[in-house]
């Protein structure tokens, strides 16, 4: 098994996280925040646009079962 990691950001991570967790070949999906200028931001602060962060997913996947391009197509 060969794994790679993709970071995907663009809107609310809750709905997108559920889709990726069900894909064959996806090993783990972690939600979090990227960028920004505030240490340890809260969900409310990020959604309010005050921190400069984006909601993101860290997706670890098996490249023998799913391709990076497939992840982008689904995203």
UniProtKB/TrEMBL annotation:
The keyword Oxidoreductase applies. Keywords: Oxidoreductase. Its EC number is 1.8.4.11. The keyword Calcium does not apply. Residues 5-75 form the Peptide methionine sulphoxide reductase MsrA domain. One of its GO terms (molecular function) is peptide-methionine (S)-S-oxide reductase activity. Gene3D superfamilies: Peptide methionine sulphoxide reductase MsrA (3.30.1060.10). This is peptide-methionine (S)-S-oxide reductase. It comes from Sphingomonas bacterium.
